[in-house]
Amino acid sequence: MPRALSNGMELEYDTFGDPSRPTVLLIMGLGTQMTAWRPEFCRAVAERGFHVVRYDNRDCGLSTFLDDCPTPDIRAVLAGDTSTVPYLIADMARDAVGLLDALGVEAAHVVGASMGGMIAQQFAIDHPDRVLSLCSIMSTTGARSVGRATSEALAALTAPPPGSREEAVERAVRSAAVIGSPAYPTPDEELRERAAAAYDRSHRPEGFVRQYAAILASPDRTPHLRAVTVPTLVVHGADDPLIDRDGGEATAAAVPDAELVVLPGMGHDLPEPLWPTIVDAVARNAARAAGPVADASTPSGTGA
Fold first, then answer.
1. Which residues contact 39 (CB under 8 A, 6 or more apart)?
2. pLDDT for 65-84, tens place per residue?
3. Which of 65, 145, 188, 266 has its Cα between 20 and 30 A from that of 254?
């Protein structure tokens, strides 16, 4: 896969579909590689007439790791001392802008999941001229009063890093049982295969801590989301234990004229049975954009 120099980072990325079509930029969540945007999902979006770009955030996957930075003191960050935090969500949004620059893309439909939704929101706030439409999936505004995790989900998120490949694989299965979609469970063997592939591609848990610190140290986006004017879609699982649905509801309430889609039975993942619903919603939101958009109803057959 190619790499692009962006905002001082080298970002690993991948593309699907016709580069002459409007670009959909997919941004993944905390400690999660771009491969979590599964190729079949990316092709489904591309077939709606889009050029799809997915990439590894800094400190994840095969993009630049900031190993020279000190390990953030999470307890201090929670207490308000952010002196050990090497970067914020806004810096990660600048990475995304730099990737568009490297690809020669003037503006994109920006779609983010979980932390990726936070990055997508910040992207729209800080770089409104580079966004055609915004979609925030299973994410939140950064307000501490909404989007709270259950104690079980928080424990799964903040558990010490696994000590071996086998432990990483089994932890993925246990974590999915806690935060996954109760109505759409992924078979354990499939979870093991994905977790093993992710571990073999890149396993560097120090980056997870730096990304988590960036989330905690970044300010509430609510006041600035009120100035977002591009078509905005918020998708959230009704049964999300990691980021409560009120995080999505608050996001939709903050952005003028945003569409909120709450999916029953969906937790904190992207279950395959819901892909058609999510892809349809993304394409419909893109069709609301003032700039050039793809046909939101007819597949183009341009998947890579």
1. 16
2. 999 998 999 999 999 999 99
3. 266
